[in-house]
Each structure stands twice: as C-alpha cells, then as structure tokens.
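Quick entry, no commentary yet.
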Amino acid sequence: MGARLAALIARGGAIPLSHYIAYANQAYYAGRDPLGAEGDFTTAPEISQMFGEMLGLWAADLALRAGVGDFALAELGPGRGTLMADMLRVMARHAPPARVHLVETSPVLRDVQAAAVPGAIFHDDIQHLPDDLPIILIANEFFDALPIRQLRRGEHGWREVFVRLNDDGQFAPCDGDVPMEAVVPAALRGAALGSIIETCPAASAIATGIAKLITRAGGAMLAVDYGHMGARIGNSFQALSRHQFADPFVEPGSRDLTAHVDFGALRAALEGGGLMVQGPVGQGDFLRALGLDARANSLARAHPPRAAAIAGEAHRLTHGDEMGTLFQVLAARSPHWPASEGFAP
C-alpha cells in the first residue's frame, strides 16, 4: 500500500489525510487478523468474556422490555466474532433467538467470524442490513477506525491537513491551499498557531444511516469507543503496531490507524435522524451498572485458580486508569422503544 500511495501522490500531488487513512486502513484490515497477542491491538471482548456477557444482558433486557419476538442483532466491525459469540451465549438464556448480521469487509476476518458465529449473515455496509424487523446494532471500537479530517491553524489561517512526499520520499503532513475558517466552530477559530481540530464525516454519515434504519424498523444501537464529547483542539491521530504506538506516516497499510471519536457529533447525527440518545457515559460506570462486579465475583468463585486473573480483567475493563473512563458508551433508540439500562436517569 505504501508504494501505491506514494505513486498516487507523485502523480497527482498531496492528498487529504482522510484519503490517506481510508486507503491505508482498507489495505490493513483486508489482509490480516490484527487482534490479540500476535496482532497489533486487543479489544475489550478479547480481554474478558464478561464484556460480551454484559452487552448480551443489555440487548436481551432491551428486547424483552420492547416486547419484540423477532428481531435482528447486528455488529459493525465484529473483529474475531468474540463479542457476538459471548453476547449470544447470554441472550439465549433470556431472550428470543435473534437473526445475526455482521458488517465486515475483510475476507480474512469474515472467515474467523464465520467460525465463531455460525449462521451469521454478512454485509459490506449498513445499507444492506434488514429493515423489515426491529434491529439492535453494536459498534465496539468501530468508529475510531474511520478516516478523520484534520484542520490546522497555520500562519495563513485554517487549512485542511494533507499528506505529501518529502524530499526523502517519506510521507509527511502538510497544509492544504484552501481556507477552511468557515467550517471551524466559531469558539475555536482563535486557537493558537499549530492547533488541530478533527472531524469525521464518515462517522456522521454512518450514524445518519443507522438512524434511518432504526426509525423505519424500530430498535436500538450501542456504540463503545474511546473519545470525547464535542469538537475540541487536539491531535488524536495515531498508529498501533505490535501493541506499541508507532508513526502513522510510516508503512501505511501495515499498522492500525485510529483517532478519538467525537461523541458530540455522533449524538447530533443520531438525534437529527429522530432517535433518542443516552450518554455517553464511561465504560466502567456502564459495565458496573449492568452487574459486571457481581459477574466477576461469580466467575472467581467458580474458578478459584483464575480469581486473580478475573479480578485483573474486571479492573482493566472498568478502572479509571485503564479503559473505564477513556472508553465511552452511547445508546440510541427508536422513540417507541424503552430507555436502555446502564445509564443514569
């Protein structure tokens, strides 16, 4: 991918950072399983079965209180299928069977997911999800991998960040030529030189599509990701390789490129599409409200040799110095569906 991007820039000039991320991540996810100790990063479902169990209880409770006997359960970017498998195991004891749909474009990951969730129906995008029955959608660490747009304030004002080739043939960020003041929030336009603002048009577009789907069919969505509430100054664009931070402008397509999610923009898109939104709240508070501490204690009693490991998993998922506050949880639902558990009144 690096050579293809270099050739593209050499022919046509610098490209927007969002295009660079889109090309790189498409190649990255298409050709590998990036999860686990042998990969580049680990997500909550891979840390502990308790994460998927809590989300399964959340979905089962919501479906029961909504009074639906037939519904679809979908996940966007389902990794290895671990989360969905854990959810289904719990939901089988509490709710009617769901029709499972997975939105995934990677052939490698689809094979892994099919083994973990037999019978799942695969889709390339949300446009092909069923709209003839209620649907519950899960998006865990999905929105952070979408391509962001960066705006930087330089000596000549606000410009979009592009990617060019420097004199050594290496990828490097640069400022575009078109003034961008009009799209910068008024409260942030006077920020210091070098300040960066990030937006994610792709996330807002997908959220709008989800809102249309749920409005038509009924249902709900749960998004879990690292991020913040509302537009802010800051550069969160990063790369992960072998569980270490890496230079995002080196070897594109061979490392995971991500950025923090703007939950304010996500909420605005969902509400603009007619949904009722709860949150975001910290992942730790959400999981504890659903009963994770009790589940950890139960697992520890049933498996004494693993008690310390289980306590460590619970700490990692919920504590403020781990994933508990960095990761945020947001729920959205049809106006005709009940409010979600896990959120303070």
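second:
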Amino acid sequence: METRKEFLEAVMKMANLRDLKQADATARAVISLTKAIIGEELSQKIAELSPPDLREGWESIRPAYLFDDYERDELLFETGEVSEG
C-alpha cells in the first residue's frame, strides 16, 4: 500500500463504509487516537517509515489530546464534525 487512496479504499472495505469520505473520517479518528496513545516519538518513526503519500496524511493529523473540550465542541456545533489539521 503506497497511497492514501489505497489506504482509504482498504478502510472503506474493511469497515463496510459507503464511500471514501466516510473512510477518511474514520481513518482520521483512529489515527488521531493512535497518535495520542503512542506519543510523538513513535509517531515520528511511523511517519519516517511510511511511503511519501501516506506520510503526508499521517503528519497532517493531530493527536486527539490536542483538542480541548471547548475547541472540539465548537467544531462539532459549527460543522457537525471535528476536522483535523
């Protein structure tokens, strides 16, 4: 798997999602939580070992703990979703 599109297609199939937009939202949520759990050092190592397109996607997602409750609630109220990056 070399590209974000291939990754999202795999997520979509594995999670029985209807489209790439849902797959992207799902992947971002899981990656955000994963980054919060594994920490910055391991996250950076994963980025370094990833193909360029996957690395770019990985690095664009902030760890979940960087959202404070107010910021998350405001994003949910305004957009209906929490965006990353």
